[in-house]
Amino acid sequence: MTVTAVSQHARPFLEGKLPDWVEPGWFASADELKALLPEVEIGWFDGAGWALTLTAPKSAPKLKWLNTFAAGVETFPLEHLRDNGVVFTNGTGVNDIAVAEYAILGMLVLAKKYDEVVRAQDRGEWLNDAPGKIELHGTSALIVGAGAIGKRVKALLAPFEVQVTEVRRTARDGALGMDEWRSVLGEYDWVIIAVPATAETDAMFGAAEFAAMKQGACILNFARGSVIDQPALIAAVQSGQLGGAFLDVTDPEPLPPDHPLWNVDNIHITQHLSGRSQTALFRRAAERFLENLGRWDRGEALLGQVDLELGY
Questions:
Q1: Is 260 part of any domain?
Q2: Any domain includes 303
Q3: Does residue 88 sit in the same domain as residue 45?
Q4: Distances (CA, A) of 180 to 120, 133, 166, 257, 271
Q5: What would the pLDDT profile of 126-157 be if each residue is shown by its tens digit?
Q6: Which of 47, 147, 298, 304 has its CA 20 to 30 Å from the CA of residue 111?
Q7: Total domains in the fold of the chain
Q8: Residue range of the domain that includes 83
Q9: Quick one: three-class SS letters along 253-306?
Q10: The domain spanning residue 121 has which CATH number?
């Protein structure tokens, strides 16, 4: 039997469906998870509190496979996992629907200046004209990071007739490579960021990139706050070089109440809520986990396996 630690949140979607070689250890609290760690071989620690989720792998000496529903994994102990031969799977493709829908929301908020409509309602004021008059129809978008989220965004933009170009690590199938996108930034009305957080993507958007973008273009970030030079972004929006920004992620998180990002017109901050804007997270993650348990047993490649050298 293989001891497996799994949150009670996933139990309704897994109980009765687990292979007979799995010995489930259900935990509902941090203390219950800590009691399981010495014997755990397969660990899915989400649900124990984020801090423990990140540190638990180092306290599980028999761990062979770590699973998470998180897509971004830069805060996990990647070096420890690599050095100890632990297979690591993340939640790529689990959150893509919710995050991609948030991306469309962000584009529409920026295009229609919907925040001004909401504020008018708060004041009880009847507006006689639309604050925002941009139509998505006929615009162009550059999606930097053509993973599961980026592909879902592209699919959702198709009915709006937005012309989409993807950026991948390596150019193929019509997508640009990571060494090509900067030269064409000025061609796009929207730049949507969905890259993993790595040393390579740290501050990949700064003053030079904002200056190269089409004047009035908007940027949306669903990656990590570290991907954007935030002071440079503030300057670009306040100068009018950029038309606005929609930030689901910031650096740091939570953003302090006195941080200047809060008070810039046309910068919208949504507190890293996009992936949480769903009720199906544990169900979808459990379905992936069950599929991977079968693959693990058969010695096949796992879905969502993290390259511990690249960090995603």
A1: yes
A2: no
A3: yes
A4: 43, 32, 11, 37, 31
A5: 999 999 999 999 999 999 999 999 999 999 99
A6: 147
A7: 2
A8: 2-94+278-298
A9: CCCCCCCHHHHCCCEEECCCCHHHCCCCHHHHHHHHHHHHHHHHHHCCCCCCEC
A10: 3.40.50.720
